Amino acid sequence: MKNIIVGAFAFAALSFAVVPAFAADFFVVQDTTSMKCSVVGAKPTASTMKAVGDGKSYATQADADTAMAKATVCASK
């Protein structure tokens, strides 16, 4: 029984250590047709979308939303 508890604890500890590696990145993009900005969960690859600014990725959607609000190309539209 002790081995099961120790094994479960070890598995849980490793799981939490690996999860951040799979976290989604968020990007601020601008639609080249409508010129509207949005936050997406994947790096833009379509020719109709371009990354705003330097194309930096953000760890959370809240960070990307804040960056979008500060971007001058997004604020003017």
Major sheet details? 3 strands, antiparallel
Structural class: alpha+beta
The backbone outline, from C-alpha atoms, is globular
Q: How many distinct domains?
A: 1
Q: Give the N-to-C terminal Cα separation.
A: 63 Å
Low-confidence stretches: none
Q: Give the C-alpha Rg.
A: 19 Å
- Mean pLDDT across every amino acid position: 77
Q: In percent, how much strand structure appears in the residues?
A: 15-25%
Counting H and I runs of at least 4 residues, what is the number of helices?
3
Biggest sheet, spatial arrangement of strands: 2-1-3
H/E element order: HEEEHH
Q: Give the beta-strand count.
A: 3
Helix content: 40-55%
Question: Could you characterize the architecture of this molecule?
Answer:
Helix content is 40%, strand content 16%. By secondary structure, the protein is of the alpha+beta class. The chain has one domain (23-77). The chain has a 3-stranded antiparallel sheet. A hairpin with a 5-residue loop joins strand 1 (27-31) and strand 2. The model has no long low-confidence stretch (mean pLDDT 77).
Summary, kept brief:
The protein is 40% helix and 16% strand. With 77 residues, the protein is α+β, with helices and mostly antiparallel strands.
Secondary-structure map:
Layout (H helix, E strand, L loop, with lengths): L1 H17 L8 E5 L5 E4 L8 E3 L9 H10 L1 H4 L2
Antiparallel strand pairs: 1-2, 1-3
Features:
77 residues, alpha+beta, 3-stranded antiparallel β-sheet, 3 strands
